[in-house]
Amino acid sequence: MSIDWDRLAERIAGFQNFVLTSHIRPDCDALGSELGMAGILRQLGKNVTIVNGHPTPPGLSFLDPHESIQILGEHVRSDELKPECIIILDTSAWAQLGPMGDVLRRSKGAKLVIDHHVGEDELGAEFFKDTSSEATGSLVTRFAQHLKVPITKAMATALYAAVATDTGWFRFASTTSDTYRVIADLVEAGASPSAIYGDLYERDTLGRVRLRGRILSRTESELDGTLMHTYVLKEDFSETGALPSDTEDAINLTLAISGTKVALIFIEQLKGGFKISFRSRCHVDCNQLARSFGGGGHRAAAGAFLEGNLATVREAVLAATRKAMQS
Questions:
Q1: Residue ranges of domains in the chain, CATH in brackets
Q2: Per-residue pLDDT tens for 3-35?
């Protein structure tokens, strides 16, 4: 599914004041896409505010050294946001917008969505989606190139991190020759792969290491070693000194076990309920699995949220996963 870049450019040209937002628990693709899009709009002479429902994880703060990303309810109130246009990046789902969903519902401004995820809710927005794209950061990069807007070093750093992390540092099947062309352009624009990798993966805290130890020690195997699953409880954070954001990419620890076809991790949220991450390297469609529990994502990677205790949530999700794997 290709995007009509001329149409997107036409819509943007009609507005001066923009708010950019993305999903709760923002990752590199969410943050990088926002920062990259903000850079494009500012070079077009637009007024831009980035507002998220959740704070930037400390480990990703290097992407926004000037702390330009505002947090709803902390830096800005919803009644202060009166944009002509809201651009939603890297999600097409109400549930993923969190408190920014209320801002979207109340806003009388235009709404645009730039995303690469499969599936979408009725957001009252015009969608600019390419579900074959490896990352929303790639789409933002291509839009900048279409407009012939220079990509600054700061934009390139944020967008490189977006693409690199959403492709598992170019390990996932979503990586194509076009991915490397985008990456080459971002490196030429000033992104430093070694510096970005170091900021992302070589600054672990002791708490993060201890938490990962717990995650690995709880890993269980089923279906002759093809299904791996583990969990995190909210007390693990206080007991290890880790942060909730330290669970990012933890599921890949289980996916790395030889013979694994599907991996799951159940992460208890501080306010209750569990976030479930799904990963697949076989016929199992993670997006379909996640959507059956109100979530969504991609064929190889998706997520959902369920209320309930660990035993109830885990059994429901594992039962559906076993059925999908054995079908």
A1: 5-200 (3.90.1640.10), 206-326 (3.10.310.30)
A2: 999 999 999 999 999 999 999 999 999 999 999
